[in-house]
Amino acid sequence: MKLIPTTQLTEEQVNAGMDLVTKDGLAVETMVVLTGGTFLTALALKLGASNFQIGLLAALPTLTNIFQLFAIWLAQRYNNRRVITVVCTAFARCPLIIIGLMPFVFTMGTTIHTLILLLFFHYLFGSLAGATWNSWMKDLLPVEKLGTFYAQRTRLTQILNVTLSLTVSLLIDYIKNRYPEYETAALTTLFLAGAVAGLSSLYLLIRTPEPLATVQPSNIVKQYALPLRDVNFRKLLFFNGSWIFGVNLATPFLTVYMLKTMQLSVFMVTIMAITGQLSGILFVRIWGRYSDKYSNKTVILICAPLYIAGMLTWAFTTISASVQFNIAVLALINILTGVANSGINLSLNNLGIKLAPSTHAMVYLSAKNMLLALCSAAAPLMGGMLADLLPNQQVIWTMSAILGILSIRLLRGVQESGEEKKGVVLGEMFLSFKTRLISAPVTLSKRVRNRQF
């Protein structure tokens, strides 16, 4: 198959492309679950990682986004985003294979320094692929369907995430309890399985159609000044950066806190994560519908306070020695943050795509990713240093919540078409839920009568 961009895509090609993008999301989600999150933290702790090293691992995925300047140069030179994405994606999977094979090939096994180095190259090539992929999707996906499409894609990937996380965490806990000497090997083997899943996405990317991009070659540094001169987009960058910094200041260490301080098993930590994911799955379709009907900004203004409330609730995990009480509090936290994150992540992604002009979409979105890279990388590194210095991690959670509150004020200055006051949207949501609650017994009664006859 020749990977040549198409000048004009038919509706059939666009629909086929959207289906392939969804399948690609499932393949990548499998890789992310097996090589990140709780399992990566568990492996890092097993290898003796410090809080700073945990923060560094959390920072790598976004820190490497600063290299997206090179991806823009490649796109301008060759004007073939699909080829660049496919090649960089292939290189990004290689370090995962090495991590997975090291315990079986080298007698010394895997060290925390080797893990960090290999993951650096994994995330580096992944960020290059992500820059061209985002621009590619900007031209491929119909803007009027962005909210609905990404909501459906997110729902499917989260269902996969929940199922896979639960199954693998049970397996890891079984090995840890019965065969503890093989725990490290089992965790590194997950990287090998993740690499296989990640490589399968290459086939899907190759088949996904690419619209021909409008390239306007010029000095890259001057191009990056465009988003900063765009007053509205600059306001979005300020909000996005401050919000991501606040969130990432504490989030990477919540898993460490549950594993080390609260002494929860990998399975229980995974259950808590799944609780949040299920909450997000239930609400992401709602947020997608409202972001299309009203605006992404409105959805964020509803979800952000909900997330902040969840962060502040972490303080209640320190007031009781009761395991049952703490589990209940953790479940509440994950429900609140799961519902909120599903709306925030969906809307932030869509808002960036929506506000970026088509002629400079790659520059705008890459500038956004690079700013987020700096904020996302600085936050966990600072959080790691604070975690080593402060005896009480509650201070970090409080700081995270305060920064979140301050960042909401920055969002209010962003202008988006279709924007509606959040009170109107909340009113419609409550009315919709009330209608469903009232109609549910009637619907159930009808089903029962139909079965009787």
From TrEMBL:
Keywords: Membrane, Transmembrane, Transmembrane helix. GO terms for molecular function: transmembrane transporter activity. Gene3D superfamilies: MFS general substrate transporter like domains. Signal peptide: none annotated. SUPFAM superfamilies: MFS general substrate transporter. The chain crosses the membrane at residues 26-48, 54-76, 83-106, 112-136, 156-175, 187-206, 236-259, 265-287, 299-319, 325-348, 369-389, 395-412. This is MFS transporter. It comes from Chitinophaga agri.
